[in-house]
């Protein structure tokens, strides 16, 4: 028997935007590796790339760069079998040039991956297939990379497929299921691809043109830094995903395809403002916030988990002004000196930013570094003034305010995370008043159910599950995996997945308490344990002991 605390069901516009942003992020984040691969290929083999004809280092790798980067004259190079297309020179002459990887990946591969992921989120593998077919029509019906179309048409096609299947659910004669399922999906995919070509394609072109003109207006009149007035407060409230993945990423990819880089990738991902805020709390903060800030810097700046600094801003809301000032300064620096990233930096770590910036050349990397430093310094100075001005009052009022700010951050996100859990533990350890009872209030009963299940169910496959299956669940899985390894237990796998990808094969599923009901519905035959803190739950030791007892480890 497992128990979970009843999940709150908040409403309102903020939650709606938050969920929409999470959905968009769920389509983009699992495919970041593909974006990185495309970014590296672009960085290396386009004419201005490391090995291109106009290499800034003089490292021209002919004819490989002309084949993989595209544009090489097939009649001169004569590489057999590679795809070619009619290519125009600057003077209007045409020749058969190699298509290469760069343009094909950004035009077809990346949008189709996004469409398939969005379709799977809505309706599993079947939804992903129909979504991919439908978005192919949108792609061919436009002349720009159709990321926006993929993020809209993909989930829509999967939803239509789901509604179609409901029409004859339970009405198909035995033996005809495969015939009906395959033909219905194929015919619907064909129809949606045609509709996408003639109807949705022009619509998405119009939407992209409008969004692009807004960004162009802001750039032309040097107004791009004012976006920080929206982005920085939105980050603290976990509303940034809708803006970042819904607008900045699609437009940024189009810009990067044309110019090799885009400033839009750095508006939200710049780690400078968070670094500056945490440094300010390190030097001028009080109590638990001051003591925990240095450790948070490592997680935020190197690990790229920006949410770690949100409680600090909520503990002192005036410091959001410092984040706005720092963010705007970083954007202005990139705007003035033409800095940008070749592909999205995810997570927003200085390491990921470095890799995404170097592709546009060493000079661009220096500009990006400068934007990070400027953003951090400005945030530090403004936040420092704010913190020093109220330091005495803050010291007198110090108590549960920082812990309350951490709780507020978790509430804003809609769920706890391992980073926030670790921060709460460090804060509790500093003040001496913290307790882990609340963080693990659901685990005692859950482990009671686990104990009852051990007699009949061998626990060989343990899965940590969260929304995206990439961030907090990966950290939790790593913690338990290390504990099991140190206990000398063999034959047990500990992995992490998105809840939507649970297939019922897990023996034990560990989730944050707000997500347990969803996990149970996805994997009903598994034993479920719900916790509030993936990172450092003391109840992991009880799980290890039960697994040890099952496997007879000493």
UniProtKB/TrEMBL annotation:
According to its UniProt record, where is this protein located?
A: Cell membrane
Indicate whether Disulfide bond appears among the record's keywords: no
- Pfam families reported for this sequence: PTS_EIIC (PF02378), PTS_IIB (PF02302)
Gene3D superfamilies for this protein:
3.40.50.2300
GO cellular component term, pick one? plasma membrane
Q: Which SUPFAM superfamilies match?
A: PTS system IIB component-like
Q: InterPro entries of this UniProt entry?
A: PTS_EIIB-like_sf (IPR036095), PTS_EIIB_2 (IPR013011), PTS_EIIB_2/3 (IPR003501), PTS_EIIB_mannitol (IPR029503), PTS_EIIC (IPR003352), PTS_EIIC_2 (IPR013014), Sugar_PTS (IPR050893)
Q: How does it sit in the membrane?
A: Multi-pass membrane protein
Keyword terms of this UniProt record: Cell membrane, Membrane, Phosphoprotein, Phosphotransferase system, Sugar transport, Transferase, Transmembrane, Transmembrane helix, Transport
Q: Which PROSITE patterns match?
A: PTS_EIIB_TYPE_2, PTS_EIIC_TYPE_2
Lineage: superkingdom: Bacteria
Q: Which GO terms describe its biological process?
A: phosphoenolpyruvate-dependent sugar phosphotransferase system
Give the E.C. number(s). 2.7.1.197
Domain PTS EIIB type-2: from-to ranges: 460-554
Q: Which reaction does it catalyse?
A: D-mannitol(out) + N(pros)-phospho-L-histidyl-[protein] = D-mannitol 1-phosphate(in) + L-histidyl-[protein]
Membrane-spanning ranges: 95-114, 121-140, 183-204, 210-231, 275-302, 308-328, 340-360, 366-387
Recorded GO molecular functions are: protein-N(PI)-phosphohistidine-mannitol phosphotransferase system transmembrane transporter activity; protein-phosphocysteine-sugar phosphotransferase activity
Instruction: Please state every residue range assigned to the domain named PTS EIIC type-2.
Output: 20-395
Q: What does this protein do?
A: The phosphoenolpyruvate-dependent sugar phosphotransferase system (sugar PTS), a major carbohydrate active transport system, catalyzes the phosphorylation of incoming sugar substrates concomitantly with their translocation across the cell membrane. The enzyme II CmtAB PTS system is involved in D-mannitol transport.
Quote the protein name from its UniProt record. PTS system mannitol-specific EIICB component
